[in-house]
Input
Amino acid sequence: RSYLAYYAGITQSAFEAARRWFGWLPGGLATGTIFAVAGFSAVSGASSAAAAVFAKVAIPEMLRAKYDKRLAAGVCAAGATLDSLIPPSTLLVVYGIITEQSIGKLLVAGFVPGIVSALIYALIVTWRCWRQPELGPRITGYTWPQRVKSLPATTPIFLVILIIFFSMYFGWATPTEAGAPGAFAVFGFALKEGIDRGELRQCLLDSAKLTVMIFTVIWGVLIFVRFLGFSGMPEASRWATDLNMPPLAILLAIYLLYFVLGTVLEGIGMFLLTLPVVFPVIMSLGYDPIWFGIVLVKLSGIASLSPPVGLVVFVVNGVRPDIPVRDIFKGIWPFIFADIITLGVLTAFPEIVTFILESTD
Output
């Protein structure tokens, strides 16, 4: 869907609408990029794809508007991590397979935290550019009719959101079944925009490579989990629950573990290595497994930004080699701070994740 959406013009339409509606704010073009990525996440499923697409579309526009290059690159890298929360999400699917949780519930639960994350990103950008206007000058001159005129082009995004979200929310389809009509809708829009045979072939090849990679990882995960089960390691991890410590302290220690691992591993690798041991501890402490999945994906988002690995940072650099990796890493630190705030909000108010699940029971 990510590649079809790009050739269908959905990415460009989302960015242009966001530019017209949010450009007047301090750092408004960066804020518009964040919300454009959030919308694009509904037709995507991989952070790396979102990072690559918006590095092509948004960074040139921000640099032309005299935005700081570190902010421009940082907002594309950080905004791409929203793809991991807003359904459909590859990481949530992998988490559900490893822990044997409902993938449908996980995908539905990720929607509100994804929007909360986008809002906190936007507030951080607005505050920084209000304090330092040279980071992101305002873009003015758009009239209300021009703003309204940009909305019809974003219809494909809202259509795919409705198809995927409501089909899962009301139980009309499984996550896989909901993704199929969503992908078909994007394909229809790509045909309408005149995608040629070469572009379609490249889309199919890229999608096939991504699918093979995901399934290969899943096979490895299932084999690894089975061997861990034979070894008795998940049961041995129960010692953590016998510690004379409050559950919150153990949970914060688990957060710290993922912060450290995130400097050398990306999300799926962390899930593979840690969940067979960590998940039984979380369950024995009484935490909701769906809530923990959302929190863990948020931690994975921080990992994908953190040096020295920072997967999406290197994706942005691969598209824009003129912006050094060093500068991109400098640009993402405010967003890591925003992610820590989001993590604190989700921990203090787990109802942000669970309330939508209770309404479906």
